[in-house]
Amino acid sequence: MVLVMIFTTAPAMAKEGLFIGAYLLPTVQMSGDALSGVDSGTGYGFRAGVGFNKYLSIEGIYDKSEHDITGGPKMKMSGLAVDLRLNFPLTTLDSAKIMSLEPYIKLGYGLQYEVKASGFQSSKGNGPRYGFGIEQYLFRELSLNVGWTRTKISFDSPINKDGTIRTFDVGLIYHFL
Q1: Global pTM value
Q2: How do residues 120-146 score in pLDDT, each as one tens digit?
Q3: What is the chain's percent helix, strand, coil content, to nearest 5?
Q4: 110 and 79 in contact (C-beta within 8 Å)?
Q5: For residues 13, 18, 23 and 29, what is the CA-based torsion angle, rounded to 10 degrees?
Q6: Which of 175, 71, 89, 95 is nearest to 134 (CA)?
Q7: What SS3 state is found at 149?
């Protein structure tokens, strides 16, 4: 009876609570009317959130990237977003009580994305986002995360056009237990 309780409650406890993380954006691709002529860029980001159980969490993110503009200056983009994340634990805890592999999908909203380029007026936008990824636990408190996200942004003046941002991220997440 005690073993059953350990193996059924411990996986949920590993994902409940606060977490923070940092990640690199080796690829940030932009397309659409608002972002034509903008090359792929690189950047970094931070995330913080709370896990409600082993299946569901909510996270806030901050991204920052830099891009070349064809025939122009460099463009900087930053963004804030909130994502609801649904986890799919594939494996249970091993003998060291480390959950090993966990794919996920996420749905969210980009609250404030801003693009700036020298000599141009900055523009802000927002829009829906979705993504998927996989999390590999290295230790009970630390995991490696790899993910992909697509954000559809409607920019305000002076652009007044839509754009799509696709990011690939690799990072670490610390889970407060």
Answers
A1: 0.84
A2: 778 899 999 999 999 998 888 899 999
A3: 10, 65, 25
A4: yes
A5: 100
A6: 89
A7: strand
**Chain position carrying tokens 């690829």:** 27
Structure-token pair, residue 110: 């980009």
Closest C-alpha among 173, 175, 165 to residue 43:
165
73 strand-pairing partners: none
* CA–CA gap between residue 176 and residue 16 (Å, rounded): 9
Q: Please report which helix (H) or strand (E) contains residue 10, including its range.
A: helix 2-15
Tokens of 38: 């903008």
User: If you ran DSSP here, which 8-state letter would residue 99 be given?
Assistant: B
- Do 49 and 62 contact (CB within 8 A), yes or no? no
Q: Read off the DSSP letter of residue 39.
A: P
Can you list the positions of beta strands (E) in 55-141?
56-68, 74-87, 101-117, 123-137
100 three-state secondary structure: coil
Closest alpha carbon to 151 in 37, 50, 68, 65: 65
Tens of pLDDT, residues 35-75 = 777 888 999 999 999 999 989 999 999 999 999 888 778 88
Q: Residue 104: name the closest of 66, 162, 58, 71 by CA.
A: 58
**CA–CA gap between residue 6 and residue 175 (Å, rounded):** 19
Sign of the four-CA dihedral 68, 149, 33, 123 = negative
11 upstream amide cis, omega within 30 of 0: no
